[in-house]
Specification:
The chain is an all-alpha fold. It is built from 12 helices and no strands. Helix 2 crosses helix 9 and helix 3 crosses helix 8.
């Protein structure tokens, strides 16, 4: 029995480490991939291949075929999350550094709480969550007010930052739709459908933008191909399954810590591998954003624990 518990703890620790490091590193991989790959076309290929892998895996395990309603809701959620969310991230990272992009994406919990509140039958956020939302958006406003990142090699443009903010709103809206819509009983099949639909939407955007015109795959350097392969296998396939394991075996408060660990990992990797550095103003803005995310994700849980201890005394 002790061996089983020990194996479970090791597996859970490995799942957390995978999500912390891999999802934190995907911003670096995206940045490297879009150096020579069209952003929407790059993201499309990533999700179509990863979605196909997950679909084959789910069907191999005997998962029932999805219904029409499940396909419909997967198309809506996948388009919002992957085309609107990840697609905009990929495009924005042509002008926004990887570490900064990860910090902006960390505001997703704020949008999630807001959308969950305003939807029909939604839940009003707690006071500490509202404070966290306000703090997080103040950090974003500080970044936007700073203009273009002159004097540092952590580059960004205001247009890129706005696209990043819109991407977080799209991801949160798609998440809310996915949670409340029709979805398969198998989370693997559900993710596969969203990736395939989102990848298809990204491909249409890429074709509309003319990203395939004049594209020569042979001239894309090995560095970008390696980054893209990492996104397909590690970012979409391995880390997703690790995240599902966390959801099944860890508390929501513990799982939510990835939202503010990922930016730390991304900023470190951007500094170590791409030479990205930050100014004092940007460091303060990023710290404010992370503080807001901490308040949103674990603040209510800490408050409940504190209140419970007070009542026991």
């Amino acid at each position: 029995m002790n061996n089983i518990r020990s194996d479970h703890r090791l597996a859970l620790a490995a799942a957390f480490a995978t999500v912390y490091v891999v999802w934190g590193s995907t911003y670096l991989a995206i940045r490297v991939a879009v150096e020579s790959m069209p952003p929407f076309l790059m993201a499309s290929g990533r999700f179509l291949i990863a979605g196909g892998m997950l679909l084959a895996w789910a069907l191999f395990r005997g998962t029932p075929s999805p219904s029409r309603a499940e396909w419909r809701d997967a198309a809506i959620a996948g388009t919002l999350m992957l085309a609107g969310g990840n697609g905009l991230v990929s495009w924005a990272e042509t002008s926004v550094s990887s570490g900064l992009a990860a910090v902006i994406v960390a505001t997703v919990p704020a949008w999630f709480a807001l959308f969950d509140w305003i939807r029909p039958g939604g839940v009003r956020p707690s006071a500490v969550t509202l404070v966290g939302i306000a703090v997080g958006f103040c950090g974003v406003a500080m970044l936007l007010a700073g203009g273009v990142g002159a004097g540092t090699n952590l580059h960004f443009t205001v247009t890129g930052l706005v696209a990043m903010v819109l991407s977080t709103a799209c991801w949160a809206a798609g998440s809310i739709w996915s949670r409340n819509g029709s979805r398969p009983s198998s989370p693997v099949l559900g993710a596969a459908l969203q990736m395939l639909c989102g990848g298809g939407s990204l491909l249409l955007i890429a074709l509309f933008r003319g990203e395939t015109t004049g594209l020569h795959l042979a001239v894309i350097p090995a560095r970008s191909w390696a980054a893209w392969g990492y996104l397909v296998v590690m970012g979409s396939f391995v880390a997703f399954n690790a995240f599902n394991y966390m959801l099944r075996h860890a508390s929501p408060a513990a799982v939510s810590t990835y939202a503010f660990v990922n930016p730390v990992v991304a900023v470190f990797l951007g500094w170590a591998l791409l030479g990205e550095s930050i100014s004092g103003r940007m460091a303060v803005s990023m710290a404010v954003i992370v503080l807001g995310v901490v308040l949103i994700t674990i603040g209510p849980w800490v408050l409940r624990r504190w209140t419970s201890l007070g009542e026991q005394v």
